[in-house]
Design brief:
Layout: H1 18-32, E1 37-43, H2 49-57, E2 66-71, H3 82-88, H4 112-115, H5 127-145, E3 150-155, H6 162-172, E4 180-187, H7 195-202, E5 207-211, H8 217-228, H9 234-244, H10 248-260, H11 270-276, H12 280-290, H13 294-306, H14 311-318, H15 322-334, H16 348-358, H17 360-376, H18 381-389, H19 398-401, H20 424-430
Parallel strand pairs: 1-4, 1-5, 2-3, 3-4
Helix pairs in contact: 5-6, 6-7, 8-9, 8-10, 12-16, 13-14, 13-15, 13-16, 14-15, 17-18
Length: 523
């Protein structure tokens, strides 16, 4: 069983990667001899990792092997078991009748939660829930290896989720004496989604890292000869390699752009190389959109936002009928912007160029609409969250505002009635006639000194004509009155009490201190 995806978008023979291809072939032969291995391809975007994988999968070394090839995407980065579904998706084990498949016999049946298209139902990962799934995926791979050596190829692994990487590590630690080869490709300039899990995989004793270097001047000259089918001047190849930094994808786009303009690969074409420069990919994408209807650009932008999706979702986001979506995909494939065998763009560099052409404001709106579209379709919460996190900046109207969803209706419930107004006089009459001196009176916001409390039997002047008089040490239970004239003598046995308080107020404080002259407490 072979699932090959030739999605690099770089036609022609592989140039400058003979040694790397030979190393992959040697690891495949070791897997035939039941010696497991791990190979990691590392390099910047467009350096030729996908082209090298395509050439490896098409070589004779993989003819008699079971090859599962998948690629992680930025749209579903971090989604639970997204990398696992990318690898095993071609087996059709996520269908409802997949339990009857011989590949899921025995303990392999426990792998179904990872293969489900709706992993949002899994719940938060715990040790008790994750280990049975990892064990089931291990036995699924073991059942595949009964048919022959197994090759797992996962591209763009820097966007792979942690649980899928943990399973790859789980598999490799138990793969001694198994006919297994795992090939991972990652971009060196991108921070991985799960760096700790990827670091554990790279720490495997059987791992081998292949770093792809830029093309030399001679290799660029060979590529130019394939494009122009004519002799290439050494100065022309040297200039092209310097402008593109030896990046195979950029070199290919540059050479094709020059050929379309009628430039010859000689001394006269050097000036044209300088004009096109390193922005050839963005320029070629813009030229493609200018020469085609607007709905082709809208479909390409929707594909760049959503990734590999069906025509219904692409058309809903782009506002284009499904029939037009298919027509636009064919035109994009002819221009080598789309992958030849799947509904996605050929390379991440092309995706960045398409998104850049859309503009930041338009892209923010599309990201928000895509999040709502995936949410309404019942997609996992991780995929919806990834769309929101990829919104450039913060949309001015917010996520719901730029999505086209109507604002929430105002509440029709009756407003909550405030508590009844309490006049100042009634509040003062309801206060405690006499409070302990340990509690400082509540000061007013005014700058005037606080009004001293007065007993019903005492006399108080307000405002004071001189220094404030010492308040009466005791009082009766009746509220204070400024016009009272009776002052009880010291040594009385009256006890302080609290008058009635409104039911909505705080709990009143009851002072029970005796008003004897020997007491240090005042009421």
């Amino acid at each position: 069983m072979v699932d090959r995806k030739t999605d690099s978008g770089l036609p022609g023979a592989l140039v400058g990667r003979t040694a790397e291809l030979a190393a992959l072939t040697a690891h495949a032969e070791a897997a035939h001899s039941a010696r497991s291995g791990l190979v990691v391809l590392s390099g910047p975007a467009g350096i030729g990792k996908t082209s090298l994988l395509r050439a490896f999968l098409d070589s004779d070394a993989c003819r008699k092997m079971t090859v599962l090839h998948g690629a992680c995407g930025e749209v579903v980065a971090g989604a639970g078991y997204g990398g696992v579904r990318a690898l095993f998706g071609s087996l059709g084990l996520s269908a409802e009748d997949a339990q009857d498949s011989p590949l899921l016999r025995g303990s392999a049946r426990r792998a179904l939660p990872a293969l489900s298209p709706r992993p949002g139902e899994e719940g938060p990962p715990t040790a008790a829930s994750v280990y049975p799934v990892l064990h089931g995926l291990y036995w699924l791979a073991a059942n595949l290896m009964t048919q022959g050596p197994l090759v797992l190829v996962l591209d763009d692994v820097h966007w792979c989720d942690e649980r899928s990487l943990r399973w790859i590590d789980f598999l490799l630690r138990r793969a001694d004496q198994l006919p297994l080869l795992v090939v991972l490709a990652q971009r060196s300039e991108v921070e991985p989604v799960a760096p700790a899990a990827l670091a554990d995989i790279l720490a495997q004793p059987r791992s081998a890292v292949i770093r792809l270097d830029p093309l030399t001047d001679a290799e660029v000259a060979e590529m130019a000869h394939q494009v122009f089918a004519a002799p290439v001047a050494p100065s022309f190849a040297e200039r092209a390699a310097a402008v593109c930094g030896g990046n195979p994808l950029t070199v290919t786009r540059l050479l094709r752009e020059l050929r379309a303009k009628g430039v010859a690969p000689d001394e006269s074409g050097i000036r044209e190389i300088a004009e096109v420069g390193s922005y050839v990919v963005a320029l070629s994408v813009r030229a493609l959109f200018d020469a085609r209807p607007d709905w082709v650009r809208d479909v390409a932008t929707a594909i760049a936002v959503l990734g590999e999706e069906d025509a219904e979702h692409i058309g809903a986001l782009a506002g284009v009928p499904a029939a037009r979506v298919s027509e636009a995909v064919e035109q994009l494939r002819e221009a080598e912007v789309m992958a030849p065998d799947r509904a996605d763009l050929a390379h991440d560099v092309l995706r960045s160029a398409v998104l850049e052409a859309a503009g930041e404001e338009r892209l923010a709106e599309l990201r928000a609409r895509a999040a709502l579209l995936l949410s309404d379709a019942g997609r996992p919460a991780e995929e919806v969250a990834n769309q929101v996190l990829l919104v450039p900046g913060t949309p001015s109207r917010g996520w719901a505002g730029c999505s086209g969803r109507p604002p929430p209706r105002p509440s029709t419930a009756a407003p909550r009635r405030p508590p009844p107004a309490i006049s100042t006089g009634s509040w003062r009459r309801s206060r405690t006639a006499c409070r302990p001196m340990s509690r400082s009176p509540r000061r007013s916001r005014r700058s005037t000194p606080p009004r001293p409390s007065a007993c019903s039997s005492g006399r108080s002047r307000w405002p004071p004509t001189s220094a404030p008089r010492r308040p009466s040490p005791c009082s009766s239970a009746s509220p204070a009155s400024p016009s009272s004239s009776h002052r009880p003598p010291y040594g009385c046995s009256a006890r302080c009490s609290t008058s009635s308080r409104p039911s909505w107020g705080p709990t009143p404080i009851r002072a029970t201190a005796n008003c004897a002259p020997s007491s240090n407490r005042r009421c």
